[in-house]
Amino acid sequence: MSNPNQRHVISALVQNVPGVLAHISGMLASRGFNIDSLAVGETENPHLSRMTFVVVGDDRVLEQVGKQLEKIVTVVKVLDVSSRDYVERDLLLMKVKAPAGNARSEVRELVDIFRGRIVDVGPDEIMVEISGRENKVQAFIERMRPYGISELVRTGRIAMVRSASSELTRASDNAASRAAS
């Protein structure tokens, strides 16, 4: 039985023409599918864009979303990334209250722990950039709440399937480490 709250990461390679985003998001909305996260950007081919989005639902929802996407003429290819070995990232920019003194030092230390970067400094707040898996970004947000978040913006999730050679290398490394145990 599939999980009705499962998060599916879907990648759609689409023609880079005006209106594709509106068409796809409108089609999904009209059929009652909620997009939890969405990121769109160009690819190595200037005629194609990649849409990466997250939908929540069971396997039936995933199947229906895939079928609907494949019907759209401007969609070249659809891939359920979450069914494969993949790397994902979110990007966050945040302004957090950090007046000079202990609070600023604590925020800087947390930024370092989360492997973020301070990208702007004001008299009473700093702007931080964090990238990583969704749960890392969310954990950082929760750690910053007590200091006071002035403004926050984040991208949708982007994801890419690992190459076959790295999958084989990882499988070989895992097998070797199990054999050594």
What does this structure look like?
With 181 residues, the chain is of the alpha+beta class. It has 2 domains: 7-84, ACT domain (Alpha-Beta Plaits, 2-Layer Sandwich); 87-159, ACT-like. Chain A, domain 2 (Alpha-Beta Plaits). It is built from 5 helices and 9 strands. Strands 5, 6, 7, 8 and 9 form a 5-stranded antiparallel beta sheet that branches. A 4-stranded antiparallel beta sheet has the order 2-3-1-4, covered by helices on one side. Strand 2 and strand 3 form a beta hairpin. It starts with 6 loop residues before the first strand and ends with a helix.
Distance between the termini: 34 Å
How does the overall form come out from the CA principal axes?
elongated
Low-pLDDT stretches are none
Return the CATH architecture of the largest domain: 2-Layer Sandwich
Rg over alpha carbons: 20 Å
**Class from secondary-structure proportions:** alpha+beta
CATH superfamily membership of the largest domain: ACT domain
What name does the CATH topology of the largest domain carry?
Alpha-Beta Plaits
Strand content: 35-45%
Please tell me the overall pLDDT: 89
Task: Please sum up the structure shown.
It catalyses: 2 pyruvate + H(+) = (2S)-2-acetolactate + CO2. The protein is about 35% helix and about 35% strand.
Task: Name the features.
ACT_dom, 9 strands, single chain, Acetolactate synthase small subunit, amino-acid biosynthesis, Alpha-Beta Plaits, 4-stranded antiparallel beta sheet, acetolactate synthase activity, alpha+beta, 2 domains, elongated
